[in-house]
Specification:
Number of helices: 14
CATH class: Mainly Alpha
Order of helices and strands: HHHHHHHHHHHHHH
CATH superfamily: 2-methylcitrate dehydratase PrpD
Radius of gyration: 20 Å
Largest sheet: none
Structural class: mainly alpha
Helix content: 55-70%
Number of strands: 0
Number of domains: 1
């Protein structure tokens, strides 16, 4: 892990406008997914297990073996572990610096103090979610799940739940694979980007994926796992994307903590036997319908929500001045 950590946080790293995936499993030309709906996937998963269904789904698209998919999941898990640990140390150098860069550390310290209202699992999930979000906002190495702006919700949730159940690394990697299956099936209709469909597309989908992964770690059935995803997703409907500035910091970092909270709620309800009256495939239809109707100003626009407040305008001015200084410095 030391060698990978050195590579992830090497001095002299540069930011680029376009960064292709460092690693990827390519989809075969003309390949068609073996599942076209959650209903279809769940029926198969109830026979063979949801992990096997995830492997089957990936193989139908890329031809990758179980071993190859597990290898990739274990690598991504290691990246997430390193970046989360770095984020929890605090003093993260956020690109704009509009948030403290140490919020994750403060949340973790509250949990360690014994004064936490919500208990260790909830506290750890929120601290981990914020830690990864702070790393993302510092241009650090993250796994977009499904986006960089929502990159903290999934690992924050899964690491906390894995600790609760003393899950092995292999089990944690399996949870990532199950979460990815949920995300892939959602992607057929849902827009993940905040600019495309609001933060319900970023943190909302991340919460749904995390709820499914958490439920898997807790021993949930395929039915419970899909219900966890549906319950979490329904409870993010209408979530706006209204960052105070283009820097993905305010309120984006803290929204990852909200996503972890919603994920835990979805998993907890599903494990208790609570079911979504609206099946997941219909939830997604409704989800996309709301995304399509969101006002443009609520899709990462600067003319609605937080940006139009007195504080939002002040931060925007500071951001513009920051960009001007950078341009002047480059011209010298």
């Amino acid at each position: 892990m030391a060698a990978l950590e050195k590579a992830l946080f090497a001095e002299g790293a540069v930011m680029k406008r376009v960064v292709p995936p460092i690693r990827s499993i390519a989809v075969k030309p003309g390949a068609e997914a073996c599942y076209q709906s959650f209903e279809e996937m769940q029926k198969d998963a109830e026979k063979i297990g949801i992990l096997e269904a995830a492997f089957r789904y990936e193989n139908s698209l890329s031809g990758s073996s179980r071993e190859r998919v597990m290898q990739e999941a274990l690598f991504e898990l290691e990246v997430e572990e390193i970046s989360t640990a770095r984020g929890l140390k605090g003093d993260n150098d956020l690109i704009a610096g509009f948030a403290s860069g140490s919020d994750a550390r403060m949340i973790e310290e509250l949990g360690a103090s014994g004064r936490s209202i919500v208990g260790p699992v909830f506290n750890k999930a929120m601290a981990g979610a914020v830690a990864m979000a702070e790393i993302s906002a510092s241009a650090g190495r993250i796994v977009a799940s499904p986006t960089s702006g929502s990159a903290g919700t999934l690992p924050g949730t899964l690491f906390a739940v894995a600790e609760r159940y003393a899950s092995s690394r292999e089990k944690q990697a399996e949870a990532y694979i199950v979460s990815a299956l949920i995300g892939c099936l959602m992607s057929k209709e849902c827009m993940f980007t905040g600019s495309g469909g609001g933060c319900m597309g970023e943190v909302g989908c991340a919460a749904s994926m995390a709820a499914a992964g958490a439920c898997y770690l807790a021993g949930g059935t395929p039915r419970q796992i899909v219900n966890a995803a549906a319950i979490a997703l329904k409870n993010t409907f209408g979530l706006t994307c209204d960052p105070a500035t283009p820097a993905v910091e305010v309120p984006c970092i803290k929204r990852n903590a909200m996503g972890a909270a919603v994920a835990l709620m979805g998993a907890e309800l599903a494990l208790a036997g609570v079911e979504s009256v609206i099946p997941m495939d219909d939830v997604i239809v409704a989800f996309r319908n709301i995304q399509d109707q969101l006002p443009v100003c609520m899709r990462a626009g600067a003319n609605g929500g937080l940006p139009i407040t007195k504080t939002g305008r002040k931060l925007q001015e500071e951001w513009n001045e920051m960009l001007s200084r950078m341009v002047r410095a480059e011209k010298k």
